[in-house]
Known about the structure:
mainly beta, five-stranded antiparallel beta sheet
Amino acid sequence: MHNIVFTLLIITSSLAFGQKVRLTNFKSTNCDEETDAFYAKNRIISQPIKKDTLFIKIATTANCCTSFIPSIHFEKKILKLSYEEYGEYCNCICYYEFDYTITGIKEKEYSVYLNDKKIEYSAEKYE
C-alpha cells in the first residue's frame, strides 16, 4: 500500500510541476517615437489564452538602437518574461510593445514579471 501511495505522489508531482512551458514566438514593434518613453509604464496590454497558448503583449521602454533577445521562465505560479538588448547603443529611449507567444501554461492564475519586476494589466499607457 505504501508503494502505491508513493507512486501516486510521484505521478501527481510530475504532472503538477512538470509543465513544459515554451516561448514559441516573439515580435517587437519598431521604436514608437510618438509615445513619451520617459513617462510610459511597463505593463501588460493583453493576455488572451487559446487552448494551451498564451499570447501576452507587454509595453516597455528600451534603448532606441538595440535589438532584443527574449526569454521566459515559469515556476511556482510566476511567469518571468525577460529580454536582453544587443547591438549598438545610442543616447535615446523608445517605447516598445513585445508579443510573447507561450505554450504549455496550464495555470489559470499567476503573476507576471518583466526583467524581475512585477507588472500587471493596465489600460493606462502612462504613470
